[in-house]
Amino acid sequence: MSVSSAPHVLIIGAGSTGSATAHDLALRGLRVTVVERGEIASGTTGRNHCLLHSGGRYCVNDKEGAIECIEENLILRRIMPHALEMNDGLFVALDDEDYAFKEKFLAGCEECHIPAREISVRDALSIEPFLNPNIKAAVQVPDGVFEPWRFCTSFLATAKKNGATIRNFTEVRDLVFQGSAVAGVQVFDHRTHKTETLGADIVINATGAWAGKLAAMAHVDVPVAPTAGVMVTIGKRFNNMVINRMHKPHDGDIVVPIRNTSIIGTTSWRVTSADAIEIPQDQIDKMMRAGELLMPILKEGRQRGVMAVARPLIASANMDARDFSRTFEAFNHRKQGSTGGIITISGGKTTTARGMAEKVSDEVCAELGIQAECKTKTTPLVSYREFYN
């Protein structure tokens, strides 16, 4: 089957999930078009914590999400080492309550198959001299960091190499229907200021925190809860590894080093619009206080920037946003008894984007009656530098 005669899949969104899905489907021989209303990774992916999760953060209270994180972490290390900094992470206990949590944490890591080893406080302070000198314990895990634009363009450059078309600054204004099924999209090109219609055999809603807004165009609902978090960027890199506090995920309990900065994060609350997130000063102050407990030197750093981004979490009834699972789900709306021709993929983490892409691509192939195996676990990605070549 040539690409020109293959079914056409149109992906809405060029964040980590949409980019990885474009790569997966192009490898399977389908004709792929990606449309993105802004620049690549300009939504949630481009404003996140840049953490390549080991799963340690979730291994006690969200084991499904933790297992997904470590499995994908190890795959990404093999297929895209050029876009990652594999610097590992430390979970540290600051007080007696944290120290008591250590037993649960180590047991959770073992159950979720996360490589973890306790190191001495002396060794931890040798590796990270700006850590709080009063820490009581430290455990090393395979965390890492990524640069969001490079992460996405590595997938997209490889997808382009396999025939995919990538159109950024192309905003979906409406869906096109054939009968009761989605058969394409109406887009506005912000560079040419022209409106056009793009047909498709399947449309994938990979818009993350905006998935509910896009799904409403198809007259369907998705249980995606945009959940914001504030992050504070300090204009100097004070840590070599990712520093996590050893307790249940909470506000301001992680400092991620990326390039020459340190990012303190993060809070968590539900928002109604992913485009208009106000950042209260008390949330910024909370981040600084919590970050300084882990690394007192952060108070000497200059705040380079403050950002808030909406996570596309799968909502659960009667549960606080902080406790929503970090797992993901593909919603085939036809199977749910509603609109055909459109599938939504949401939830998850940037770390799990490849796994999310595999799941939604399997669903697409099943819907189209195509037998094509996923190859993304073992196929190395070309450099992000190839995206514009």
Q: Tell me the CATH superfamily of the largest domain.
A: FAD/NAD(P)-binding domain
Work out the number of β strands: 21
Overall pLDDT confidence: 93
Which CATH architecture of the largest domain?
3-Layer(bba) Sandwich
Q: State Rg.
A: 21 Å
Distance between the termini: 26 Å
Helix count, DSSP H or I runs of 4 or more residues: 8
Low-confidence stretches: none
How many structural units, i.e. domains?
A: 2
CATH topology of the largest domain: FAD/NAD(P)-binding domain
Task: Report the portion of residues in β strands.
Answer: 25-35%
What structural category characterises the helix and strand content? Answer: alpha+beta
Q: What's the CATH first level of the largest domain?
A: Alpha Beta
What kind of sheet is the major sheet?
A: 9 strands, mixed
Reading the helices and strands in chain order gives EHEEHEEHEHEEHEEEEEHEEEEEHEEEH
Indicate the overall shape.
elongated
Question: What's the helical proportion of residues?
Answer: 25-40%
Summarize the SSE layout with pairings.
Layout: E1 8-12, H1 16-27, E2 31-35, E3 51-52, H2 63-79, E4 84-85, E5 89-93, H3 96-111, E6 117-119, H4 121-127, E7 137-141, E8 144-146, H5 148-161, E9 165-167, E10 170-178, E11 181-189, E12 194-199, E13 202-205, H6 211-217, E14 224-234, E15 242-245, E16 254-258, E17 261-265, E18 269-270, H7 281-294, E19 303-314, E20 328-332, E21 342-347, H8 353-368
Parallel strand pairs: 1-2, 1-13, 2-9, 5-15, 13-21
Antiparallel strand pairs: 3-8, 4-8, 5-7, 6-7, 10-11, 11-12, 14-17, 14-18, 14-19, 15-16, 16-17, 20-21
Helix pairs in contact: 1-5, 1-8
